[in-house]
Amino acid sequence: AAPLTFTILQQTRVSKGNSIFWGNASLDGRLSHLLVDYNVTQVLPLDPPDVWARRQEDVTTYLLYFGQLVKLFSKERPINYPQSLCCRLGCQLFPNGTAHSFYEVTLNGTAFLTFHVPTATWERRWPHEDAVATFAERELMKYPKTTRDLQHFLNTTCVGILQAQSAGTGKQSSRSHALLVLGLILGTIALLCMAVGIFLSTGGSC
Predict the structure, then answer these.
(1) Which long-range contacts (CB under 8 A, 24 or more apart) does 109-115 make?
(2) What is the dihedral of CA 104, 107, 110, 111, to 10 degrees?
(3) Which of 21, 37, 145, 198 has the most CB atoms lying inside 10 A of its own CB?
(4) Are 6 and 180 in contact (CB under 8 A)?
(5) Structural domain boundaries of the chain?
(6) How many whole angstroms separate alpha carbon 47 and alpha carbon 37?
(7) Interval 91-143: pLDDT, tens
């Protein structure tokens, strides 16, 4: 039997100082959220309309801030070719009760970083020996939000949502579903913000 899966896919394209966002979230194979440019929409009714409207506004504000930051970096260190960052993260719950969580980052289609959930450590996957990947790995290891908190989020919160879904109590956990999605979206954008900032601030040495 296939495992229950919750997955977020977040992509950001940066070109000439402009940022374009797109992505989605899926819960057990069903599209739950969709991100296009600066607008995130709720496909599954996991939050009441008034609550979701507030969350939607928060995400839009965060994306706008990200876009402004990219513009600032690009003025200081302009790059004449587009850059593409992609984050894929989530968790799986297998029929025997075991679980697996993951967080992968690619830069221009090449593996850049992965988060090793059991030890809460970031691992460099970039094939080139350069300062950008090394700096990104070192910086991400400095903060609880990108180490211990992220580990708890993927290992406990995400898996707990799937366990509730497996037990047929998903509706009772609708608020947790929405909070998980919001947390993953914001966490992903925070990482993208750091990665793009690092990359642009180095003048595109990748």
Answers:
(1) 109/84, 112/85, 112/136, 112/195, 113/137, 113/140, 113/195, 115/89, 115/150, 115/154
(2) -30
(3) 21
(4) yes
(5) 4-166
(6) 21
(7) 999 999 999 999 998 888 889 889 999 999 999 888 776 667 777 788 788 87
